[in-house]
Amino acid sequence: MAESHEAAARDGQNVAAVHDRLRAAILSGEIPAGQATSQSTLARDFGAGRTPIREALRMLQREGLVLSEPNRRVRIAELSAPDAEELYVARIGLEAVAVRITVPGLTADDLATLEGLMAQMDFYMRRRDNDGLRAPHGEFHARLVAGAGPRVTTLLGQLFDHAERYRRAFGGIGPEGWDARQREHRGILDAAVAGDAERAAERLVAHYAGTAGRVFRAIDPAHDLSRLRTTIRAVAPAAERGLQS
Question: Of 76, 200, 220, 241, which is most buried by a Cβ count within 10 Å?
């Protein structure tokens, strides 16, 4: 009985490890969006057994990153304008509320941590290290919404990861554009330091709208953004102009 429990624990750890590696490869673009492959190919490429690969793919399918096809084949979810719009509708709508909840409760330690994360972001971006940038960038945004509770922050973390696929593919910037993005982060943080939750939310939404605008101009300039515009007008009307920046 003890051996069966140990085997189950090992299997669970193996599935989790394979899932994390596959998910990271999809989010980073190492496995390109739209690519079709098979369970056997992934098992070979990742040095994993068929069972952990199958279970990991089921988890990724539930998350919407992988689509199942006949004959044990899978396809990495495509990047598309309609999907990107749904993603930004969900992210902007929820995060605008979450930051309003969080800002009034931020402590001096929280604000000092946010300052440190901004410095880390700048460090990595100046070195064109997008992989290094991802962790402090994600943590910066996560801390600004942490007061909304674990269910909300877990969902927002997933939305951040999915948006990363679009940012990397279509909305990326080089060091020459980083100064503007860092000014946007500074504006959000300055509003938080002042305890101005409304201004922090407006600047946060404008920040996301700017990224979304770059994504849609690259992926499909003709795409109708009426759903996203409606969302922005509902949570931070002045931020809509960010779509054009």
Answer: 200
Over residues 36-74, the pLDDT tens digits come to 999 999 999 999 998 999 999 999 999 999 998 888 899
Tokens of 4: 């069966």
Tokens 């499909």 correspond to 220
For the chain, the three-class secondary structure string (H helix, E strand, C coil) is: CHHHHHHHHHHHHHHHHHHHHHHHHHHHCCCCCCCEEEHHHHHHHHCCCHHHHHHHHHHHHHHCCEEEECCCEEEECCCCHHHHHHHHHHHHHHHHHHHHHHHHHCCHHHHHHHHHHHHHHHHHHHCCCHHHHHHHHHHHHHHCCHHHCHHHHHHHHHHHHHHHHHHHHHCCCCHHHHHHHHHHHHHHHHHHHCCCHHHHHHHHHHHHHHHHHHHHHHHCCCCCCHHHHHHHHHHCHHHHHHHHC
Please, which residues bridge with residue 37 across strands? 74
- 14's CB contacts (< 8 A; 6+ apart) are 48, 49, 52
Mean pLDDT, the chain, integer? 90
> Helices 175-193 and 108-126 meet at what angle, rounded to 10?
180
d(CA 8, CA 2): 10
Which domains, and CATH codes, for the chain? 2-76 (1.10.10.10), 81-244 (1.20.120.530)
Using a 10 angstrom Cβ sphere, with 0-12 exposed, 13-18 middle and 19 or more buried, the burial of residue 4 is exposed
pTM for the model stands at 0.86
